[in-house]
Amino acid sequence: MRALVYHGPEQLELEQRPDPVAARGGAVVRVLACGICGTDLRIAKGAHRAYADGAARVPGHEIAAELVELGAGAGAGGLAVGDRVFIAPNLGCGHCPACRAGRSNLCASAEAFGITRDGGFAEYMAVPPAALEQGLLLPVPAGADPAVLSVVEPLACVLRGQRAVGVREGDRVLVCGAGPIGLLHVLLARAAGAAKVLVSEPHARRREEAVAFGADVGIDPSGEDLRVRVFEETDELGADVVITAVPVPAVQEQSLELAAVGGRINFFGGLPRDASTIRIDANVVHYRELQLTGTTANDTDDCREALELALSGRIALDRLVTARFPLEQAGAAFAAAAGGRELKVVLEP
Ligand SMILES: [Zn+2]
Ligand SMILES: [Zn+2]
Fold first, then answer.
1. Nearest ligand, CA of residue 99?
2. Residue 106 CA: which ligand is closest?
3. How far is the CA of 130 from the centre of ligand 2 (A)?
4. Alpha-carbon distance values, 296 to 107, 162, 185, 301 (Å)
5. 141 CA distance to ligand 1 centroid (A)?
6. DSSP string, 74-101
């Protein structure tokens, strides 16, 4: 099969690899679509901690696929060869305290497709027995567009973030950053019944996109006073929910002063490893009774719920997929994903 293999910084190579064979209790899927996200760009640059020197691995964790082989004794939960699936990428040990608390993404021995083991930028991908046992292969209708389904993975991360701050009907929500993740936050906040969705984003085109995706107001934090604008738009109360979806320390620092009394804040986007210390006035948290939360990645329940939202049509993900490439054009696809003009770029092996 053809596979896009990481060999080191800026060395993603398309090569021939033997087709995977289903292990006893495991499976093999044919990848139909696999989205490229910021994590993959970081992997390609050699800046991802799971990709150490000497790692030769296939990235790709936003995967829609077709089940093509089941190993002997595989318990596939009713799935059959030929079925189409969305794959929840994070595999925990299944029994540690983190896994039992719905945090398989934070399991000390967590594995993930495209992160610690071969992922979806290939024609085929092996699925280990534990992934079947933990129900990571979620069935999808044969007619659903695989490229659109691949966006369920980032949606699951976004859902986890919004669950942490309990976005509910009537909330006034501020999303900082209108990249594909910020846009997913806009879509989800709207679906949750937010009364008003504000977006802070310095790029004009992205601001317009955010409004097209359902935001009420796009604010330019480089040209306007963000705090003044947020309070203007919220009857001088501040935002009930603030979500930071950009890797910028100053945005996290400012988030506290944009929140209403009792406001909930989610640090959704991580910061660069060498710039992850911020300065905040802790008394603002104390005297305004703020709730400051953080979330990272997703677990299988998030994926299941995100998939239901997508399949029910309550969240329309199709507009996010703006570019599709075959595996042969992976270089162009990565350039497009890094270029910032496209929303989601998807490889269709
Ligand atoms: Zn991703
Ligand atoms: Zn565990």
1. 2
2. 2
3. 12
4. 12, 11, 14, 14
5. 22
6. ---TT--TT-EEEE--EE--SSSHHHHT
* Domains delineated in the chain: 2-151+317-347 (3.90.180.10), 156-294 (3.40.50.720)
**d(C-alpha 286, C-alpha 224), whole Å:** 28
For the stretch 307-338, what's the b/e string if a residue is b when 16 or more beta carbons lie within 10 angstroms of its beta carbon? Answer: bebbbeeebebeebbebbbebeebeebbebbe
pLDDT at 273 over 90: no
Tell me how far the alpha carbon of residue 100 lies from the centroid of ligand 2, in angstroms. Answer: 7
287 Cβ contact list (under 8 Å, min separation 6): none
pLDDT of residue 31: 98
Distance 63 CA to ligand 1 centre (A): 10
pLDDT digit string (tens) for 62-114?
999 999 999 998 877 889 999 999 999 999 998 999 999 989 999 999 999 99
| Ligand 1 mean position, distance from CA 34 (Å) | 10
Rounded to the nearest angstrom, the distance between the alpha carbon of 274 and the centre of ligand 2 is 28
Residue in the structure block whose two tokens are 């540690």: 96
The yes-or-no verdict on residue 129 having pLDDT over 80 is: yes
Separation of 260 CA from ligand 1 center, angstroms? 31
The pLDDT value recorded for residue 74 is 84
Q: Is 311 helix (H, G, I), strand (E, B) or coil?
A: helix
Nearest ligand to the CA of 34 is 1
- CA-wise closest residue to 242 among 276, 296, 290: 290
Q: How far is ligand 2, taken at its centre, from the CA of residue 30, in Å?
A: 27
From the CA of 97, which ligand is nearest? 2
Nearest ligand, CA 96 = 2
State yes or no: pLDDT of 44 exceeds 80: yes
Helix or strand holding residue 220 (H, E):
none
Concatenate the DSSP letters of all residues of 4-38 into one string.
EEEEETTEEEEEE-PPP-PPTT-EEEEEEEEEE-H
Give the span between the Cα atoms of 315 and 4, in whole angstroms.
31
Could you tell me the distance, in angstroms and rounded to a whole number, from the CA of residue 203 to the centre of ligand 1? Answer: 22
